[in-house]
Amino acid sequence: MTLTVRPGILDIAAYVPGEHDLPGSGPIYKMSSNESALGASRLAMDAYAKGAAELHRYPDGGCHALRSALAQEVGGKAEEIICGTGSDDILVLITRAYAGPGDEVLYSRHGFLIYPIAAQSVGATPVTAPEKDLTTDVDALLAAVTPKTKICFVANPNNPTGSYIPASEMKRLRDGLPDNVLLVIDAAYAEYVDKPDYTDGAELVKQHDNVIMSRTFSKIYGLAALRLGWAYGPNSVMDVLNRIRGVFNVAAPAQIAGIAGLADSDHVKRSKAHNDYWLPWFVSEVKRIGLHPYPSVGNFLLVRFPTDPKLNADAAEKFLKSRRILVRKMGAYGLPDCLRITIAEEAAVKACATALNDFVQGAATQ
Length: 366
Hints:
By secondary structure, this protein is α/β, with parallel strands linked by helices. It has helices at residues 42-50, 64-74, 87-98, 114-121, 138-143, 167-176, 202-207, 235-244, 252-263, 265-289, 313-322, 346-364; strands at 29-30, 81-84, 104-108, 125-129, 149-155, 182-186, 211-216, 229-232, 292-293, 300-304, 325-326, 328-329, 338-342.
């Protein structure tokens, strides 16, 4: 007997995460997944370790303590917060709840790959809007809205491009969307941004009943292994998501580590200071080498390579692997001439700059 898979499932291009291992021995510089350069807070690690004594207990199914702490962060109420196994879990929940066969899910051309995957998984149609200079184009998004549109995802800052749109543009997008379209602001990298015109979207959640903001502990908090994400939204939306989320969907160690990490503001400041220094340093090096870095406000850099087979992105990625440096290829995002490189620890950033310089210089002598 042949099992029947629901129509459309086999059309999904499965998400492929950044590589994390290489054959052979020696240290690996992992710059492929936008993880925290400084790792997790010591307070978070200690809390996680203490939680080992309670591994036989089910976690708090409602994440009450964590949700209360997060509500204080955004100036909202605990009932307006939901937690999940990474923010992508919540993005999938949102899509399950508000889209289905015959509906459309809208996002920017080079947006996070989870958006189309989530749409296709429920039988909805993913729709992309073109960008301007690898930046979300509000006019293009609004022009792509149809009566079938149910969700509009906007990553701000955007991964993998590193670009962002200001608060005024996000508001213009919200005001231009029909009231029956849910605007989902994916602000996974918000903590890295200090531009005066940037917003994570929390104020729009407070003002409207069709806006939700998602966040993660996987980036600046350094808790990627624990898979912990959250979202802030209207009570009506939270009620819907709570009806379909998994029972005990956030492990107890993740909850207690998240609370401790959230309280360690000094660690967050150090992590941001590291990025504030090494991101522009790396940008300068990439330019000096003769490659093209796109402006970024995240903890990563999108670098464009020439089309010459000796100098293209595939050749560069292969060369970096020979130096035991892992970066992210961007073909799945429609950017085959680019690599995305995380601003990792100091040694990794310096090693990558040296390797890129050697790659370009070596190609020039061939």
